[in-house]
Amino acid sequence: MTGADARFMALALSLGRRGMGQCAPNPAVGCVIVQGGRIVGRGWTSPGGRPHAEPQALAQAGELARGATAYVSLEPCAHHGQTPPCAEALIAAGIARVVAPFDDNDPRVAGRGFAMLRAAGIEVRTGVMAEQAGRDLAGFLMRNEIGRPLVTLKLASSFDGRIATATGHSQWITGPEARRVVHGLRARHDAVMVGAGTARADDPQLTVRDMGARRQPVRVVVSRRLDLPLLSNLARTARDVPLWLCHGPHVDPALVKAWQGIGALLLPCEVTQGQVDPASVLHALGAEGLTRVFCEGGGALAASLLSAGLVDELVGFTAGFAIGAEGLPGVGALGLARLDEAPRYRLVETRALGGDVMHRWSRA
User: Fold this and answer.
1) What is the pLDDT of residues 162-182, one digit of tens each?
2) What residues form the catalytic site here (predicted)?
């Protein structure tokens, strides 16, 4: 891998990140067209998933694309969907070389894009920045391979790990700087998910605010009985911002009709040990096209996801005060007898945010 290949691929990856949370079920891809060492075109997957990154970069490059190198953060698509294949667009534009990290694991592509390019006489180089691309595209790749989206679990807690006082008072544990970062994280995911207890106690909006005009993430609430207030912020805005309710198989038909009547999408899921099965929830969300889910609790939902091994990333925001043992814990009971039974994560980042500390972890 040359230094130039790594540099331009890093730019393509950074462009792709602009589409995170905006283009599911499509991958958030970036593309850079380089002619004679100069960038002549850039693009990334548009909100809603179209246009793709490559045709946008090619449109910027124009005739300068002929004989140029295209750096793409995923194998160009090879199938006819709502748009023609990007591999065909690169061939038609006269691209001489394509650099990418790895094959697309979507069965409709799976090496066919690279094969089309090679058949047209285009040099193809793979393996460039594959590890970083794998992290960026993990949700898309996981949905294709195992049918569920990537899950990020976020917890904002006191120094002693509490998310509220014994009376349920929780606003605000962290300061404005941390809360702004949370909105940015929401924006980079396809959906924001909470449990029924959090929905009832906090009456949240679960939207991205003060970040400019954006496509809002889907709001997901996991509620076995659908016993959620019909006069809540979520219910009031269900026609304006998507609201999906994951519930058990035996719910009051009148509640189903009421929630559907105000615009919510209802997703029946399996129940195990008296609660909605988290694997069933994630597979239902994957079937609806989601690739990245940002879970904001509460404790019971967080515990069920952790116990099932379904949390891929942890993001913690810790404030500099203690609430005490009577406060509400951020994670419900896990039933662990030994420390080596606890799910382990690898520290990726720590950062001071005003008076709080953010720490980010990935699955070990």
Assistant:
1) 988 888 888 888 999 999 999
2) 54
Both 194 and 343 in one domain: the answer is: yes
Residue numbers belonging to the annotated binding site for Zn(2+):
52, 77, 86
Task: Report the predicted TM-score, pTM, of the whole model to 2 decimal places.
Answer: 0.94
Q: Give the number of other CB atoms < 10 A from CB of residue 320.
A: 11
| Residue 247 near residue 224 (C-beta atoms within 8 A) | yes
Count of domains in the chain? 2
Q: In this predicted model, what pLDDT tens digit does every residue of 11-24 receive, in sequence order? A: 999 999 999 999 99
CATH of the domain at 80: 3.40.140.10
Binding residues for substrate: 170, 186, 206, 209, 296
Structure tokens at 307: 């116990």
Which structural domain, as residue segments, surrounds residue 44? 3-139
The token duo for 7 is 């540099």
How far is the CA of 257 from the CAs of 39, 103, 280, in angstroms?
A: 54, 44, 22
Please indicate, yes or no, whether residues 294 and 345 belong to a single structural domain of this protein. Answer: yes
